[in-house]
Amino acid sequence: MAAGLNELNMEAMYGIIQCLLVLGEVKEAEQQLEFLVEVSVSMGKSGMLSYLLAQLTWWKQQEHHHCRDLLDESYDVQMGVCTKSFSHRNIHFAMKM
Distance between CA atoms of 19 and 21, rounded to whole angstroms? Predict the structure, then answer.
């Protein structure tokens, strides 16, 4: 596995969890996400982590309003990253796309 080379390769871990969810391996995905939640305490919030938590919530058919809240959080974190990365003018351009 890609994450086996570097356990803290977050992009690889996100991809593995996404695949696990698509394959219906919800329990395994949940365990991997629990690990990433612990790691994220020291590394900061990630929009992708919130997105994957929302997907897990959806797959487990839990409270759909909680899923929506996680998606909102994911959006807010990603927009925060974009705001830091782009000038004000470029943000409006990116949002229109």
Answer: 5
**pLDDT tens, 30-76?**
999 998 888 877 777 777 888 888 888 887 877 777 777 777 877 77
Say how far apart CA 50 and CA 93 lie, in whole Å: 25
Of 16, 40, 42, whose CA–CA distance to 30 is shortest? 16
Single-letter residue type at 54: A
Measured CA to CA, the distance from residue 70 to residue 93 in angstroms comes to 25
Domain ranges in the chain? 7-96
Q: What angle do CA 63, 65, 71 make, to 5 degrees?
A: 110
